[in-house]
Amino acid sequence: MKKIILLITFAFVATFIANAQRDIVGTPYTFNHNDISLAVDRIDLPAFDKEELMAEDAIRAKEGAPMRIGAMHHVSYNFNNSGRKDILPDGSTLWRLTLHSPDAVAMAVFFSTFNIPEGATMHIYSGDRKQLTGTYTVKDVESNGVMPSEFIGGDEVTIEYHEPADVPFHGVIEIDRVSHIYRTVLDIPGYTKGNVDEAEDCHYHASCPEGASWHDQINSVVRITISGTSGTYFCSGALINNVRMDKTPYVLSANHCLDGASSTFRFDFFYQFLHCDGSGLSPAKYVQGGEIKAMISYNSSTGTSTSSDFLLLLITKDLSTRPWSDSLYFAGWDAGGSSSVGLAIHHPAGARKRFSFPRQVFSYGNKYWGVNWYTNPNRGCTEQGSSGSPLFNANKLIIGDLSSGSSSCDNPSGSDYYGKLSYSWTNNNNSNNARKLKPWLDPDNTGTLSLPGMDFHGVVGVRDNSSHIRYFNVSPNPSNGNVTVKGSFSENNGICNVYNAMGMLVHSEDISLAPTFNLNLSHLNHGIYFVEINDGGQVYRSKVVIAQ
Fold it and tell me: DSSP strand E in 374-446: where?
């Protein structure tokens, strides 16, 4: 057992709590009462063989399974059959239980029953008392009835429950699972042994200038930590817009990332390096809590022949209360069934966010988009942990989520397959709303098949990230729509997207780029438009007024 530190200063606790991500925080009873014995019953859980787990993971990777980072202990602990219970002088009850999972990098505790009265408190902390999470209340119980804890670094955690004497009923809890994290990939505040970036080196970091024009879309992508029946896993997903544009926090991912009906979800936002060279760690920004709204079941043995493998989650926490909500972006989408080459944004190996450039996007039956990658030079691909990540078309709209594939930095010639959003939209006219996307992303049945993205302030479409954008000249301006473009472009070909004053995409075409060329927008109505040219490595923009 790790040495227990008997004294903790108020300053340390205050600092830790200030950095916590929970809505309600507090201090365990024993942290403020030095007269309480720290001798607590400890249960030594069975040891896992890490080498055996890693060997299983190597096989799972070839089968297209999501990236596993933790194995699951199945247990049955409650107030009556385990732990130490003390009746204190004031009549209150204190219950504590220490769990030890040998050689765990981190641990999390899951409660199948969690019904405690108002005024009662529960916290979970590390064996050395340097990491703390809580206060937990009945509000933390998720829609599937599970109450998950956050992750604590190390191989030992203590659960502490304090119940005042005058409560209307006595609390009831049941611990049914304990996650044993065996990979050093979790970024846990205050714990230095984790946070190892296991991604391969062919992808672009999220902050690299090659993705500057995709700043908003990059901000929509999240890492998802999923804990279920058999283990804990990493997948990727994207915060996605809906036709009401009401900031409902839906996240699109892949169904094969699920691990049973009791799966719980943690969403890491802006989990990326601050600099293109892979330096500078962004502070942890996450919420815990999600529920399944729609999905198509997936069978790894039949793969792309059975379904489009999508999962739509709803984040159950209020994102507007987070100080970083201003930077959130709800990605747009295209359910029309056409494709173009855009960008793949993901968390390979559960690592900090990367992006990759597809070389070719092709239709693979009616359920999947196939993607081929660049091989010389390699401009990225995908890995385990990328599962569920979005594929964007040239108009920066999601057209699919990653289901399976054979690509890697060592095998860039391998192909990947993304479930088509156009098929998931109605799932071949499935009558069950829990098996298709349309009822959730177009709840008023407007018939919309293409929707732009939106930031947290309701600004729709393209936003002006001025520090990353170059400009070109247009003449005459105003004009009748026939204009001459003059600019210094880095490539010979690009995509021209035109947005109206409301940020809606009204025109898109592939164009040949030269220092001077003509552009015909005469078919558009009179008004103000924003013209964006993307040559694959840089974005250029100008304003055009059509008035003649």
Answer: 390-392, 397-405, 416-420
